[in-house]
Amino acid sequence: MSDDKTQSGGQDRERVNVNQEYELRDWANSLNTTPERLKEAVQAVGDRAEKVREYLRGK
To answer: How far apart are CA 11 and CA 13, in angstroms?
Structure first.
């Protein structure tokens, strides 16, 4: 099943998807970081938004 861009919420809000360009851009903007740094954070701690936020705050 493809990603329905009109439906967001639930698990989508808890996970950072760096494989979708629009999500990468939106997450980077909301976390006040660059897409490259966001990808680094996801690589380091996984895609859970809470863990990514903690990683970005500590770096």
So the answer is: 5
